[in-house]
Design brief:
single chain; about 425 residues; Spore Coat Polysaccharide Biosynthesis Protein SpsA, Chain A; eight-stranded mixed beta sheet; globular; binds ligand GDX; binds manganese (II) ion
Length: about 425
């Protein structure tokens, strides 16, 4: 039996309540937990309506505020980790399931599918969804790109939706997660990346199930709304970069011998159907994003740009006069990303703005040269872009390992 959790901030209370009700009515759900940030309107409204829902469904429904567990910005991470702690300390359920509270296409099958995965034995089960070709731009350009460049032979770059908030963990997974300081500290938007990373690091078998009706939820206006999420997701990848998760051939031994850390059982359901609106939707406001490139320049940013090669520096800088982004093709983005991994500092607002401008530029370059050519072309491109990043990075790592080994051998001799 299981616990279903909805972390929530300021949301439409009717949407949240409807989702809580769907969860409470599910025959396999014992308890529903809503984790809020503070006692604002949404919280009050839930507080008022939950007693009635409890009577109707005859289930345990609880409402709590998140604790201060981590040391980053207090956000969704504190909310989710508070729920993990509650699950271990206050309940003896076997599984914990998370869903975003703002989903308007939520249904009982979302719960059943996660639980079926758990019944098959998977300790980690995640949902993934059809997405339009200009959606998921943090996932593709930051998370999957980072996974491919840093851990190219691990399972990480193969995970369909590494940032999704709809997932299930069995109790043993939660116990290991909460023992991990890096996970507890991640109180912000980086939490999704952390959970994904540690599921792979600990080699938990993972199933990704496909929800073909898609996830409709509260819409963002401009790309600026995503800035906080962007910098926190990048900061998380940067903070993890010294972990080794490789599947490196042992150069000394016979071919076919591998050192395997981060190679896990990972299965993904085939994405059978794609709803029509996914082909037709545009994920963000293109005109508004062009303005973002030109706004908010500070003298500090100009100094920081000096760590980039001239081509990148000049390309970004040109935005002071007119939007410039066509230089941010996949190779330039890789180059910029690797430099950002060395120099980005989340505590410096100028760095945040540089990362934001580079990312907006990359998204616009992709949108105008690739996404424009249609859904299937764009999706093929995105998957193969990640393949190319993996191949590039794996080759470099193997070359480096061989070189280091050669140096070691020659210094021994
Ligand atoms: N308790 C708590 N505390 N809940 C929060 C907080 C917080 O500080 N911030 C957001 N939430 C809730 C929010 O009310 C919603 O239920 C859920 O967390 C997700 O937030 P939302 O603003 O809807 O995020 P968005 O942009 O829809 O992103 C979600 O989907 C992404 C994805 O599918 O890729 C979110 O779950 C991301 O973490 C995920 O990367
Ligand atoms: Mn949402």
């Amino acid at each position: 039996m299981c616990l279903v959790v909805f972390p929530f901030k300021k949301e439409n209370p009717q949407v949240v309540l409807n989702n809580v009700k769907i969860a409470a009515q599910h025959p396999k759900v014992d308890e529903v937990l809503c984790v809020g940030v503070e006692k604002e309107e949404t919280y009050r409204s839930l507080e008022q309506n939950i007693p009635q829902l409890k009577m109707e469904t005859n289930k345990d429904i609880n409402l709590i505020l998140q604790e201060r567990i981590g040391n980053k910005r207090p956000g969704k991470g504190d909310g989710m980790n508070t729920a993990l702690k509650y699950f271990l300390e206050e309940t003896d359920h076997n599984e914990i399931l998370f869903f975003d509270s703002d989903i308007t296409t939520f249904g009982p099958n979302w719960i059943s599918k996660l639980l079926e995965g758990a019944e098959l034995g998977y300790p980690v089960v995640r949902h993934y969804f059809p997405r339009c070709s200009t959606d998921g731009m943090i996932t593709w350009m930051i998370t999957k790109t980072g996974f491919a460049l840093l851990w190219p032979t691990s399972e990480l770059p193969w995970i369909e939706q590494p940032l999704g908030g709809e997932l299930l963990f069995k109790r043993e997974v939660v116990e290991r997660f909460l023992q991990q300081e890096e996970v507890r500290n991640r109180s912000d938007w980086g939490i999704d990346t952390m959970y994904t990373f540690y599921s792979v690091k600990y080699c938990y078998p993972m199933l990704e199930t496909y929800i073909s009706e898609g996830k409709l939820h509260k819409l963002y206006g401009k790309l600026t709304d995503l800035k906080t999420m962007l910098v926190e997701c990048f900061d998380t990848i940067q903070s993890l970069r010294d972990h080794s998760l490789e599947l490196i051939p042992k150069v000394n031994e016979m071919e076919g011998s591998f050192l395997c850390k981060g190679g896990i059982i990972h299965r993904a359901e085939h994405p059978h159907e794609v709803p029509q609106d996914v082909f037709e939707k545009i994920g963000f406001d293109i005109e508004g994003s062009l303005t973002l490139l030109m706004e908010n320049w500070t003298p500090g940013m100009e100094d920081l740009l000096s760590v980039f090669p001239r081509r990148i520096r000049d390309g970004v800088y040109a935005n002071k006069k007119a939007p410039s982004f066509s230089f941010l093709d996949e190779h330039t983005w890789r180059e910029a990303y690797l430099i950002l991994l060395d120099h980005f500092d989340i505590n410096n607002e100028d760095w945040q703005e540089i990362l934001f401008k580079l990312w907006v530029g990359r998204v616009l370059c992709y949108t105008t040269t690739i996404a424009l050519r249609g859904y299937y072309f764009a999706m093929r491109y995105l998957y193969s872009m990640i393949d190319r990043y993996m191949n590039y990075s794996a080759k470099h790592k193997i070359k480096k390992a061989k070189k280091e080994e050669k140096n070691e051998n020659s210094s021994c001799a």
